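Our consortium's second objective concerns turning raw sequence data into structural hypotheses that experimental partners can test. To show how far this objective has progressed, the report includes one record in full. It was chosen at random from the queue rather than selected for favorable results. The single chain below, 381 residues long, was entered without modification.
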Amino acid sequence: MKVVYVVTRSDEIGGAQIHVRDLAARLSRKGHEVIVVAGGNGLLFEHLQQLNIPYYRLPSLIRPIRPVKELEALYHLIRLLRRECPDLVSLHSSKSGLLGRIASFPAKAPAVFTAHGWAFTEGTPRMPRLFYMALEKMAAPLARRLITVSRFDRELAQECRVGKPEQLITIHNGMPDIAEELLATPEKEPVRMVMVARFSGQKDHQTLLQALAQIGTSQEWSLELIGTGPGREEVARQVRDLGFEDRVEFAGEVDDVAQRLAHGQLFILTSNWEGLPRSIIEAMRAGLPVVASDVGGVSEMVRDGENGFLVEPGNVEQLSERLRELMADSELRKRMGRRSRECYEKGFRFEEMVENTLEVYRAVVDEARGKDKKRKKLPTE
């Protein structure tokens, strides 16, 4: 099978990029032919080069909405798909998902779109939400399948009438396992908290810092913030204003997240909206208790009171209370960390995700070939 993957950005290694990179690598090892297409010129291409996976850079494929750039990207994408003649086009992230579905039609290549959290999900501003919902409704018929990474997103699509029920299928994200030495020891003292998140409007570092301000220095703790983004300086200013410079570390964008989680005792993800955050899967894989905002598909990973705590988005008092509870109880952290690891093993292994995804790909390719054969027979019948 020949698969062309399309993702909007290459200059950041977020959930969609990791998903595409890892899937492409595994399919390649299984003997399939894969090509990755992305905009920008960043880390993703470096990773693909190391993995010997062919890729195309599409300079006009950018995240901001620019009509001229969109038309240019669409033109080049159609040409590329016609030249490569893939059995299937696998699309990831909103912009490439829309353009890729349009391009796949004249290229006569069946498309599958994976929504890594809908752009019209709850918590996003109202006007952009309505705009993206309308676009997804129009684009949905151009895909053979719409994969959602959480049941929450599948139900949201059905509620908003995006796609037909038979198009929608949920496949939870999965991640490759780690070596035993990278398992965390959540019972250790003092407590080191870790949050892996881009500094952007989607994530809510401010609520976390306000919650920690309520705890103050009455307990010994430290916090590592992993990620980059436009809001970093504002968060750094808030850290300085609170006098937490010696307790909060800004790690930036790193490629050793698993090693850093291994040295943590507690994982936190405060968000305004989510799909199915891969960072939580990484934390569960490491055996860490998780405290996260109850948004999107987070509750499909974090079972409140079992492997961590769910908190209302923006609820400073509730978050502060849960953090105090975990900081003060090493046995609770240990027990919840063990449950996290069990949750990862039962439902979020990479191998299971790959097989479920391949099953969808094969079904789509078989359907397309069947319809093509019928179409070719018509003139002679």
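The partners drew two points from this record. The domain at 180-347 is CATH 3.40.50.2000 (Rossmann fold). The radius of gyration is 22 Å. Both points have been shared with the crystallography group to help prioritize constructs.
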